[in-house]
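2024-03-11 09:14:02 DEBUG pipeline.ingest accepted 1 chain
2024-03-11 09:14:02 DEBUG pipeline.ingest length=474
2024-03-11 09:14:03 DEBUG pipeline.predict start
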Amino acid sequence: MASFEDLGLSAPVLAAVHEVGYETPSPIQDQAIPPLLAGRDIIGQAQTGTGKTAAFGLPIIEHVDPSLETVQALVLTPTRELCIQVTQAIRTYGTTRGVDVVAVFGGAPIRNQEAQLRTGGHVVVGTVGRVLDLVSRGSLQLADCRFVVLDEADEMLDLGFLEDVERILAATPTGRQTALFSATMPTAVRKLADHYMYDPLVVAVEAATLTIDTVEQFQLPIETREKAAKLVEVLGAEQPDQAIVFVRTKIRCDQLFRTLRDKGLNVRALHGDLTQGQRDGVMLAFKASRVPILVATDVAARGLDISTVTHVINFDVPITPDTYVHRIGRTGRVGRSGRAITFVEDRQKRELEAIERHIGTKIAPWTPGAHAPPAKVAAPARRHEKPHVKRPADEPRARLIASGGRAAGIAVSDLVSAITHATGLDGEAVSDVTVLERFALLSVPAPEADRVIESVSGVTVAGHQLAFERCGLP
């Protein structure tokens, strides 16, 4: 097995590596670091938990010249949580060389981030929307940016950021070195690599979250009104060291958090409506094991890599089989065993059946003390497959108006993607989309209209913050 000394890292960077306690490189580090140090473009197929941040973070530190007061490296991430984690890691790697790392993301004052960029920033780590905003303002200059990383590229494109990513890449030098990391390689990611990378070396590494063979999986049929009480019962029976309870919406996340807190449980909530300071505090407390139970939405929990999670509880059935695989991959890490329990209402049985077909096994019923043989769950080859949903022809619809149209660079696919990712609705739920110059019109199921307005208003698409409201148009 190779050592970090064998990879070509300098003495100051090796000192930082040993300071953080790394002993031997992970497979993705072993395979990616040498070609990145040599200046090659690479495509790394690897998920969170494989050590990919160090795989690109250490070469970034080697490439940066601290004496130059310019942005020399840029890391794009799909979420604020991942942005923070990557920033913290690269700052740690760069302490021995005096490399300054600046994080830029939405949900925090842009003027503060502009001030940070004026006073430093050899490396910028940022979410796509905020980076594009800063570039368009002239606050982030990328003319000297020689190293670009697209982290979790498939998540970026799933969230509808393709055009924004392309605009950012266009602002960097054509001779830059580019590294792309992605858990899966859908067509859109491959096209992005083909267009913006030069003769990339492909490195594919499997991880525990790609083939999960250490997770016992259970289902629990339940009535809607009984779910919160049953969750308390399950937590009492299971006694998890740490558990993530997944819900579909921000509203449900807050409601469940309050219910569990009022019952005396040590619990925190993580969702997109928290301030950045609140989210940082929740993540730090959970990572430090000061909080045993975290109630979270999928987007907010994306990028969390905590090896001590013993249980995942799907309070709401995941909307797609892909999401199920992603969720249960949060436990059973680093060779440890884990347990995943999914609450299933009658109306969600078809979704559960789609998950079982997808993972190739039946999910056993849960009872106190139940055990099930861990199932080998292969992650899908195609990320975007979803169970077919046919919406009823007589379903009542509501007409909504969205701020922003062609003038803001918004396309039909942007609006559909924003709604499905924020609400968990299937793509068929959004219909009759018309994008005009300054605004757009669309229809959604009438019972879901208020939730769509609440969940999607404030989402940034193509650099534009959406605002939804009902309209009286037919």
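2024-03-11 09:14:41 DEBUG pipeline.report The longest strand covers residues 215-221.
2024-03-11 09:14:41 DEBUG pipeline.predict end
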